[in-house]
Write a structure and sequence with these properties.
With 192 residues, the protein is mainly α. It has one domain: Cytochrome c/b562 (Four Helix Bundle (Hemerythrin (Met), subunit A)), CATH 1.20.120. Helices cover 59% and strands 5% of the residues. α2 runs antiparallel to α3, α3 runs antiparallel to α6 and α6 packs antiparallel against α8. The protein is globular and about 45 Å long.
Length: 192
């Protein structure tokens, strides 16, 4: 192993042990939700290489990841955040309860995205014969409707799971992870 790889490996091991220690004191609902978040993180990590083209595409693995997101969305997700459950080592910000409607909306949106991702699994990737072209999602309007929100400068367009399911899997996956990122940006303490 080269010195650079050794240092990188040591740094990674250190970060993982710090993260493990941070969660080790969790109990009750905080421990439960940290477990749910870890499952979703692992689901992302399991399919991200496929989506970037660095691993062979596996539609069944995409559906399993989508099922993980679906199980931890909607009421299951909001139920993991009873009022005031911010005790250490929680990474939840009080903003969750201050803007509960937005948090609940993101939780529901994650469920729509998960269902759409599951439906899109058999579509493959955009660059590998997926069904999306430059006009499908935004230009033709054929995928617009009620359901999923996509941010725009002037507001939001809504998409249903059925519409998302018509996309290539990498597009649906990107939209799903954007919901997670939006929630983390607003409602989770910085890792820094």
């Amino acid at each position: 192993m080269t010195p650079r790889k050794t240092v990188t490996g040591a740094a990674l091991a250190s970060l993982l042990s710090v993260a493990a220690l941070a969660h080790s004191g969790a109990t009750g609902v905080v421990k439960d939700r940290m477990g749910a978040m870890k499952e979703m993180k692992e689901a992302v990590k399991s399919v991200a290489p496929m989506m970037s083209g660095t691993a062979a595409y596996d539609a069944d693995a995409v559906r399993r990841a989508a099922d993980t997101f679906r199980r931890h969305s909607g009421a299951a997700l909001t139920g993991d955040f009873p009022a005031g459950s911010t005790e250490a080592p929680s990474e939840a910000l009080p903003a969750i309860w201050q803007d509960w409607d937005r948090f609940a909306e993101l939780a529901e949106t994650l469920g729509v995205m998960a269902e759409g991702l599951s439906r899109a699994a058999d579509n493959g990737l955009h660059g590998a014969g997926g069904m999306m072209d430059s006009g499908t999602m935004m230009g033709s309007g054929s995928m617009m409707g009620s359901g999923m929100m996509m941010g725009t400068a002037g507001g939001a367009m809504r998409m249903s799971a059925e519409q998302i399911g018509q996309m290539p899997a990498d597009g649906a996956f990107a939209m799903t992870t954007q919901v997670c990122a939006a929630c983390h940006d607003r409602f989770r303490k910085d890792d820094a």
